Amino acid sequence: MNREERTEQKMQELFHSHAAGDEGSDGEFMQILQGYIFGDVCYTGSLDSRMRELVTVTVLTALSALPQIKAHVGASLNAGCTPVEIREAIYQCAPFIGFPKTLNAIAAMNEVFSQQGIDLPLPKQRTLESSEERYEKGLAIQAPIYGDEIKERYTWLPKPFDEAVPRFLTELCFGDFNTRAGLDGKTRELLTVVLLAALGGAEVQVKSHVAGALKAGNTKEEIVCALVHASGYMGIPRLFNALNTCKDLLTEG
């Protein structure tokens, strides 16, 4: 297939619509956009359409791109993602982008679910039996991948924050979210990498989570593929920043 045929095929798969022509006020721009994302990037690398759409929804949530979130929630369903997978991808953004932006993305997602006739609320994915388990169960996920890095890094904080800040991270990010069912640990780590890359200015965290994604079972090619896929949404500079900051991790061995 040539580029135009690939773009048409992917647009039909994800959106059940034809690729952009000359119609509308900005047909030329839409042809450039669709050609790059759906004609080039979507056919480069190993990730399937399902994983690519989870990456896309994650990046759009980080960017608060609400109209595009709605479009890609629909595309995610068409690509074979379950409603629970889409919801978990958005839910787990909260520790990184904050609760207000995440709530906005959830509202956009639920609007699409309602339009598609999907019953809400979706099935619960909480695995914790009590709030007292948040730290213990969260640490059981965090420690094998990240060790005591955060706890050791912030010992200089005044009390009680020297203890509270690392604990809050463990309880919120790993306890409240990573213990949930609906997405496996490998997927959660890969989505976290693209989320942090999309934020910009979080290169320290990008590198840490690339290392974590590798430990969780992602290959170097899958990580690069996810970052390159995100480039059409977050921009080329943030792609290069992410690749440059973790070059040693992606080339060693």
Description:
The chain has 253 residues and is an all-alpha fold. 70% of the residues lie in helices and 0% in strands. It contains 15 helices and no strands. It has helices spanning 3-15, 27-40, 49-62, 66-78, 83-91, 94-97, 99-115, 134-146, 149-153, 161-177, 185-199, 203-215, 220-234, 236-245, 247-251. Helix 5 (83-91) runs antiparallel to helix 7 (99-115). The radius of gyration is 19 Å and the shape is globular.
What descriptors fit this protein?
globular, mainly alpha, 0% strand, single chain, 253 residues
Helix content: 55-70%
Please mark out the parts with pLDDT under 50 across 5 or more consecutive residues, or reply none: none
Mean pLDDT: 97
Q: Strand fraction band?
A: under 5%
Please report the total strand number as a whole number. Answer: 0
Describe the main β-sheet briefly: none
- Element-by-element helix/strand order: HHHHHHHHHHHHHHH
Distance between the termini: 35 Å
What is the molecular shape? globular
Radius of gyration: 19 Å
Total helix count? 15
- The assigned structural class equals mainly alpha
Question: What would a concise description of this structure say?
Answer:
Pfam families: CMD. Helices cover 70% and strands 0% of the residues.
Fold topology:
Layout: H1 3-15, H2 27-40, H3 49-62, H4 66-78, H5 83-91, H6 94-97, H7 99-115, H8 134-146, H9 149-153, H10 161-177, H11 185-199, H12 203-215, H13 220-234, H14 236-245, H15 247-251
Helix pairs in contact: 1-2, 3-4, 3-5, 3-11, 3-13, 4-7, 5-7, 8-10, 11-12, 11-13, 13-14
